[in-house]
Amino acid sequence: MPLPVLEEARDSFLNFSGSGMSILEISHRSKWFDGVIDDAGTRTRRLLGLGKNFHVLFLQGGASLQFSMIPMNFLGGGSTADYVNTGTWSSKAIKEARDLGKSIHVAASSEDRDFRYIPKNISFNQEAVYAHITSNNTIKGTQYSSFPNTGGVPLVADMSSDIMSRPIESDKFGLIYAGAQKNLGPAGACMVIVRDDLLDRVPETLPSMLKYTTFVSTNSMYNTPPCFAVYVVQLVLKWIEETIGGLSNMASINRKKAGALYSVIDASGFYRGTADSDSRSSMNVTFRLPSESLEQAFLQEALNSGFGGLKGHRSVGGCRASIYNATTLESVEALVDFMKEFERKNG
Ligand SMILES: Cc1ncc(COP(=O)(O)O)c(C=O)c1O
């Protein structure tokens, strides 16, 4: 989380916006919270360049609930959707849709090489209601450098681990979703951006809490929203706009950070990147060392030097530097120095 955001949130703990109440105490039916959620939506629209035909929602249930809500809302009456399988999260999205009995076609997959790459030149079924991708694969460290051409089929993207990290061509998308807890704020809120025309597909018979239309018609306040999480998302968006200067600047900082780490890896016979170079992520840099015992030593020494959280996801092992938006270039440069020194001593 960016430090200025934490500082402002800290101050709002005691007195939010002159209300005399904590941000944790204000009602979601108050003018104060209206200001928060409206500003978060407006900033999202500005940052992503969203047209008037998009709705910005704040839901609960994490990105994982979206794996089910998307097919429930859009795939009625025997219609079908395409999915690209690029790892754990895409596989879960496919499984959830299939468990609902929906017709899902896997248009492309990188499973043949352990999800080390992003498939190219994918041909999408033009009858599909949507084409689902995971824009950044948090565990395997791969990311779409540009979004696929679907020939007009709306893209549905899980952007949980790279939303707001770079500008996007928003008119390609039918729906974007992201659990807040990486680039947007604390756990507890999930941002969903949905294009108006897709809402015509939402079946009336779905439970209210599972219908996008419920949240569109109530400004995400059908029931009590995750107020504090939405508030911190608002602060993060303000930081991106006002301190960073927008998504082009954010992307250039992110490129510098990732570039610094990949150059150490590329120049080394000691560290080995696990993603193909044309598919690698600017958010999660995944790499291995020559042996598991060296990896253990690396992780321990890194921790002792103040670099926590470098262990790869429990399902794949190895090492992973997650360098989300709030990670500073200075801290990445310090990690680069540490990695060079560790290689010098152990290589
Ligand atoms: C790309 C991606 N999708 C989905 C999820 C699941 O998110 P949540 O825990 O909000 O359900 C994650 C979590 O790390 C993720 O990285």
**Strand percentage, roughly?**
15-25%
Hetero groups in this structure are: pyridoxal-5'-phosphate
| Poorly predicted parts | none
* Strands side by side in the biggest sheet: 1-9-8-7-4-2-3
Q: What labels describe this entry?
A:
single chain; 347 residues; alpha/beta; seven-stranded mixed sheet; three-stranded antiparallel sheet; 12 strands; binds pyridoxal-5'-phosphate
Short note summarizing the structure:
By secondary structure, the chain is of the alpha/beta class. The protein has nine helices and twelve strands. The strands form three sheets. Strands 1-9-8-7-4-2-3 form a seven-stranded mixed beta sheet, with helices on both faces. The protein has a three-stranded antiparallel beta sheet with strand order 10-11-12.
Structure commentary:
By secondary structure, this protein is of the alpha/beta class. Helix content is 37%, strand content 16%. The protein has helices at 3-14, 31-48, 62-74, 88-99, 212-217, 227-244, 247-266, 292-304, 329-346; strands at 54-59, 80-85, 103-109, 131-134, 136-137, 142-143, 155-158, 173-179, 190-195, 272-273, 284-288, 319-322. Strands 1-9-8-7-4-2-3 form a seven-stranded mixed sheet, sandwiched between helices. It has a three-stranded antiparallel sheet with strand order 10-11-12. Strands 5-6 form a two-stranded antiparallel ribbon. The two termini are 34 Å apart. Bound molecules: pyridoxal-5'-phosphate. The site of pyridoxal-5'-phosphate has 10 residues, from helix 3.
